[in-house]
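Board work, copied verbatim: mRNA cap guanine-N(7) methyltransferase
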Amino acid sequence: MADLTKIEEQEAEKSLSEEVERKSHTLEKDSGINLEAKGSTSDTGHSTENELASDNQDNTAKKRKLDPEDDTPRKKKQIGHGQAVAAHYNELQEVGLDKRSQSRIFYLRNFNNWTKSVLIGEFIDRVRQKKSDITVLDLGCGKGGDLLKWKKGRIKKLVCTDIADISVQQCKQRYEDMKGRCRYNDYIFDAEFIQADSTKDLLASKYDDPYISFDICSCQFVYHYSFETYEQADMMLKNACGNLSPGGYFIGTTPNSFELIKRLEASETNSFGNDVYSVKFEKKGDYPLFGCKYDFHLEEVVDVPEFLVYFPLLEEMAKKHGMKLVYKRTFREFYEEKIKNEEHKMLLRRMQALEPYSTFGDSRLVSDKPDDYEHAKEFIKDGKAKLPLGTLSKSEWEATSIYLVFAFEKQL
Ligand SMILES: C[S@@+](CC[C@H](N)C(=O)[O-])C[C@H]1O[C@@H](n2cnc3c(N)ncnc32)[C@H](O)[C@@H]1O
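↓ predict structure ↓
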């Protein structure tokens, strides 16, 4: 795949690093996290307790925050965002296979799904080397898009949780249907379903078994919703990692803040994107550590505000919960690494995660924009490549390449 970005990654990194420097004093005070250990100068002297509130750009909230007893406006806003997210995901219709295969982002969705499959499969294998009965927490399970992956991984128990109640019901129904289709000696895991806002509710008090411990917490395309405030991001981490057994993994996928800022800084406006996705920030040049909101739109699927997750900060915060980062790759790096494995390559084909390309003008291509296949045309021009070539349209590739995969391991 061609590199579709122009400006240097370091520039975006610099913007965010400067931000960390400015805000680290506040953060240290609020959280007890020592950012100096990461090499940032914490003693800038001009951060105050109120700076996080000002990040929310809500003047009323800013004023009220001066009164430590009164956090009403902030709370209202947080509830508002959680509800908006839940309402959005609740309203999303479940789409049948027929309709899905006609979608403009058919291959993009499959590609993202392949990425999750490989990641999940790999960490199940790692745990299985140590034990056979695997218990998993699917944090932000949605409508149960990963249920089959857990079945394939032959786990013993799954706890599914999401803020959107209708999604949780649909996830449960999907599980019951799967179970109903099981033949005589077919195996399926036990499951439990919980509706909760994982940025505010403590999941530990909601499990059927209060002593449950997980081997894996999987958080796919969810964690960024928590970065509205430090408290919310920390609560989601607590939920993700608090009940993990030593040696257990917190794995997930989330937008890569460096990539987002890189694209934003390269744009002439406050937004960027193409015909399948768009991202709109409130402003450029100021990226608070928490509450750095942007509107994310993905054709047919997502249209909600999200929050920038500055990954080095997540890494620091995770340490407080006994977690160590053991794996982090951009989607591009992950694809390039995993495609070398024949099994993953075959799965990519089976899941139709790449579009078969032979020539532009083929009416079956998802995009009718010639530019969208320039990279493929270039690749096959010497006539040596085997056709059809597996690829993604440029617009889909741009959309998927904003993400990264991560894995943290619980320390003994
Ligand atoms: C993009 S969907 C991903 C769903 C699923 N993990 C998947 O990969 O198919 C994001 C999910 O995160 C859930 N979510 C967002 N904020 C949440 C919160 N505070 N607590 C729990 N779930 C949340 C949404 O309701 C939605 O189902």
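Residues 1-8, 35-78 have pLDDT under 50 and may be disordered.
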